[in-house]
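Exam review. A common question shows you a sequence with its structure tokens and asks you to describe the fold in words. Practice with the pair below. Do the first one on your own.
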Amino acid sequence: MHLDRLITVLEAIAVAGRPLSAPELQKSTGLPRPTCYRLLQTLSEHRLLDETERNSRYVIGERVKRLALLGQTDFDVRQAAAPTLQQAAIEFGEAVFLSRFRNKKVEIIHVETPEDQARSYIHPGLGFRPMHACSCSKAIAAYAEETFREEIINGPMRTYTEHTKQTPDALRVEFLEIQRSGYAECVEEIEMGVSSVAAPILIGNVGAVFSVGATGPIRRFTAKRRAEIGRELQQVTKKIAAALQLDRAIA
């Protein structure tokens, strides 16, 4: 069966733990040479295998890694990310939250808050967030496939405040800025007086499934402080990626 042979090739590369050449794969699988080469081409075309730049060797593709990540339960993800999120909340003195992409939407699935009981903070809540207005959503959308970004850009954009992006051009420019800086902002776009910053957990060249954000009052989230948090969140995402055993995928 064709599917069985495709799986055989994927398993051979996964078990090897290193890039394999076509001749090595053909030898380890025992498949006829033309069949093996045809399967490698098919898997590469669908981004299930990636070809390394040197020596035409193959590794498990970023798309497979993305599928594996999407299959992780919220419980497992929260358990892996919670210690890093908790430390970030203590260091920032603000609520820090983890969001994930599912069903073409972005949902906040976990929140950690500061330890200092005397310090006020803003809890972002849980649940789905607007793709055009929330930092956690925009951080993921900016790195999504272009067709999906265009769906967001050309779709309905509910106006929450006077600061909510209301035109396709404005959102298109913002997505480019997020790609440049590595983090997204929401400055009073959903609620007046409230701001947030979020950074994506990137997986190679296939976008992001998760983002990590921090939220707080606009009086503390100045432009300078948002930039600082944005840069710090990018380090937080790397730690969470390692906890999710994705460090190799995003290296």
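Now try the second one, then compare your answer with the model answer below.
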Amino acid sequence: MRVDPSILVDRREGWVALTLNRPDRLNAFNTDMHARLAEALDAAASDESCRAVLLTGAGRGFCAGQDLSDRMQSDGPVDLGATLEATYNPLIRRIRALRKPVVCAVNGVAAGAGANIAFACDIVVAARSARFIQAFVKIGLVPDSGGTFFLPRLIGDARARTLAMLGEPVGAEQAAAWGLIWKAIDDDRLRAEADALAAHLATQPTEGIALIKEAFNASAGNTLDTQLDLERDLQQRAGRTSDYAEGVRAFMEKRVPRFTGRSS
């Protein structure tokens, strides 16, 4: 394990665990943590042996969003739009564009940008004690880090608007019932199940999963006809991978497939 001041990078067989590591600040983001996480995600993207990513937090919470103490060090008004453009927006784009599945294990409170970073991941599991809070309204701000995009698509407009305007917490079991996350897990089993999920995904057809991500990322802005055309094109690419050939062979031979994750 390589220990970093703000990110723990734990490389496993075929996948990597990235842990937000500012537990004394509930893993709230500062400039350094943004930079370290960007480096870790870029490294995972370029590492062919890494076929899945797990994102979680150290200590009693997943992420409390922005570390507001950073804001207090400024002599004048902070350009929050510039901050988003430089840090949070690239992070969300990295997670969504990563051609590998990203699992998020929410081990406690996920507030503000912390909640929306979790929702940007592909599969989200949470400890039963976890809470998701759109805390922006409590300091007069708008949900960012994709919050106004993800929330209405995950839980509908009425719930999304209410959560954004009231800033009330949603527990993990309610979040799972609403479809905000994949499922709630007993606290003492969260990390083991999240690790097992990432390890499983690391054995699957990685290029096929990348194409699945590509399809879902595009679907929100596409018409049905456009999406059907995209599915056709992506399926053409998937059908030319060695993993597709291996999947068919394994099916015919009644055995477990041995996917390599390569595009050809």
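Model answer, second protein: The chain has two domains: 2-201, 206-252. Residues 80-97 form the longest helix (18 residues). Full marks require stating both points clearly.
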